[in-house]
Amino acid sequence: MSDARTALDEQDAPAPVAVPASTVTAVPDGPAGPATAVDVRGVSKVFTTKAGTVTALDDVHLRIAAGEFVSLIGPSGCGKSTLLRLVADLDEPSSGEIEVFGRSPRVAREAQDYGIAFQQAGLLPWRTVAANVELPLELHGVGRRERAARAADLLALVGLTDFARHFPHQLSGGMQQRVAIARSLAERPSLLLMDEPFGALDEMTRERMQTELVRLCAETGAAVVFVTHSIPEAVFLSQRVVVMSPRPGRITQVVPVDLARTAERTDDLREDAAFFAAVTAVREALHGGTPATARGVDVR
Ligand SMILES: Nc1ncnc2c1ncn2[C@@H]1O[C@H](COP(=O)(O)OP(=O)(O)OP(=O)(O)O)[C@@H](O)[C@H]1O
Ligand SMILES: [Mg+2]
């Protein structure tokens, strides 16, 4: 099977190897199996505005396994958020198909398969931290006692137990992001969609949050689609890094990251030779086009 999951199966390869886009696009059409979290088949998205049409995505194929952590990276405007929004059922493809655990995004959303965390924490200012985390559960009719217990667990998980009764404005930006991540995990989603969730954080907080996210995902077994502009962040977090090019947005390369198992990714990894090798592989994949295509990507 020469689909994108092949790359996952090749995790034991000795060094990160950029997979040519042709092997990625050769995804056989067919029903997604139970081990497939996201199946994007030949998806294009054209926006029509008064100023004309923009092809945000063109013939994108991507299959993400259950429990897999995949990052999307590419220059500003290449369609990363658009792809995430299509998977999240916040918009519809112009052509092509998307399945989430073998169902349409709409059905998957209704079945509460998703947890979503975007760049802005998006907390409700009049609710306490705990009440924000409980919100999705409340909307789905979970009882008060169960909600409170779940929120307490999640706040412990993100290290904010002492702030449960605070309001969002009493927290730092990084703490608010952690609340948003706790909220996105409230319904034990099997798929987390994250669009630059750490974009506004300082480097230290960002690295701590990355380590925390790796731990959370190992604990919950959720598949993650993570949009970032940072190559080291993508490499640290992911089993595969999907590199996109702009106008029209396409997947140009998929870089398997051959680092420790997700559960064993600790800060030491950031100084490991394999980490630097993977960073280089992603950087080279990004620069595969003209230098201008790497604009807007943080290569530190
Ligand atoms: N609702 C919309 N209407 C019209 N055009 C849109 C809309 N949403 C996105 N686009 C266009 O689609 C293209 C891809 O946008 P998208 O937001 O997906 O990029 P991105 O890769 O997430 O960029 P960034 O890294 O800056 O967040 C851009 O050219 C953008 O102008
Ligand atoms: Mg975006």
TrEMBL record:
Q: Which Gene3D superfamilies match?
A: P-loop containing nucleotide triphosphate hydrolases
Q: Where is the ABC transporter domain?
A: 38-271
Keyword ATP-binding included in the entry's annotation: yes
Domain of life assignment: Bacteria
Q: Which InterPro entries match?
A: AAA+_ATPase, ABC_transporter-like_ATP-bd, ABC_transporter-like_CS, ABC_transporter_ATP-bind, P-loop_NTPase
Q: Does the keyword RNA-binding apply?
A: no
Q: Which SUPFAM superfamilies match?
A: P-loop containing nucleoside triphosphate hydrolases
Annotated GO MF terms: ATP binding; ATP hydrolysis activity
List UniProt keywords, sorted A-Z. Answer: ATP-binding, Lipoprotein, Nucleotide-binding, Transport
UniProt-listed PANTHER family: ABC TRANSPORTER ATP-BINDING PROTEIN, TAURINE IMPORT ATP-BINDING PROTEIN-RELATED
Name of the protein this chain belongs to:
Sulfonate ABC transporter ATP-binding lipoprotein
